[in-house]
From TrEMBL:
InterPro entries (UniProt xref): ThiF/MoeB/HesA, ThiF_NAD_FAD-bd, Ubiquitin-activating_enz
THIF-type NAD/FAD binding fold domain sequence ranges: 12-236
Gene Ontology molecular function, alphabetical: tRNA threonylcarbamoyladenosine dehydratase; ubiquitin-like modifier activating enzyme activity
Swiss-Prot/TrEMBL GO biological process terms: cyclic threonylcarbamoyladenosine biosynthetic process
Identification of the protein by name: tRNA threonylcarbamoyladenosine dehydratase
Any coiled-coil regions, as ranges: none
Superkingdom in the source lineage: Bacteria
Species the sequence originates in: Deminuibacter soli
Length: 239
């Protein structure tokens, strides 16, 4: 039975597609500016089962762009904050919460063939990102990935394409190179923007966990990337 809170989606899509979405299991890895809103859009679309993954805690510097970030949630695990929010959206959601940083070995164990209807990659560190994408392609798991939203301000330049058709995005360049070295050349939908970055807004630092740089961000761009990424999965699952 389709719950009342989904009645507007039901009106748009019809019973068959909504019922199908309610039977799917979507994995979202990374719950920052892109991943947090992506996970919420997946839940609001009526996906019946979700797994969310993130080891990070909310920092006040996240408040300009991350849906989990409030002054009242500072210091709390993003995965736990999002879990509470997602369950408040859909009390019947079958939700698995993994507040942990997944190395390649853990990703190998998690990403079993057929385990997920769709995998959404919102990781912002290169090694785990490439590992997740490689494993998904090798094991036939449908996957879409967010490239770099930092340093961008123009929503009109956001694109969806196969990873090999992405361009003028530094993160996409590095991901393509690493994947090509591992024999993965296509089959991954990515959200990216070719908008040029002002390099004066990039800071080299040792304080960014697992990253060498910090880059400026604006409130709406990670959310646009996240909503677009969620739409890729939702539309493909409906079809």
């Amino acid at each position: 039975m389709i719950p009342y809170w989904m009645s507007r989606s039901q009106l748009l899509l019809g019973d068959e597609k909504i019922t199908h979405l309610m039977q799917q299991h979507v994995l979202v890895v990374g719950l920052g500016g892109v991943g947090g809103i992506c996970a919420e859009m997946i839940a609001r679309a009526g996906i019946g089962k979700m797994t969310i993954v993130d080891a990070d805690v909310v920092d006040l510097s996240n408040c300009n762009r991350q849906i989990a970030a409030l002054h009242t949630t500072a210091g709390l695990r993003k995965a736990e904050v999002l879990a509470q929010r997602l369950r408040a959206i859909n009390p019947e959601l079958d939700l698995t919460v993994l507040p942990q940083y997944l190395q390649e070995e853990q990703l190998e164990a998690l990403l079993q063939p057929g385990a997920f209807s769709y995998v959404l990659d919102c990781i912002d560190t290169l090694g785990p990102k490439v590992a997740l994408l490689r494993i998904c392609v090798e094991r036939g798991l449908p996957v879409a990935s967010a490239m770099g939203a930092g340093g961008k301000t123009d929503p009109s330049q956001v694109r969806v394409a196969d990873i090999q058709q992405s361009y003028d995005c530094k993160l996409a360049k590095y991901v393509r190179k690493r994947l090509n070295e591992k024999g993965v050349r296509e089959g991954i939908q990515v959200v990216f923007s070719p908008e040029k970055i002002d390099e004066d807004r990039v800071i080299v630092t040792e304080k960014a966990f697992l990253k060498k740089t910090l880059i400026g961000t604006i409130s709406y761009m990670p959310a646009i990337f996240g909503c677009t990424l969620a739409s890729v999965a939702i539309r493909e699952l409906m079809d």
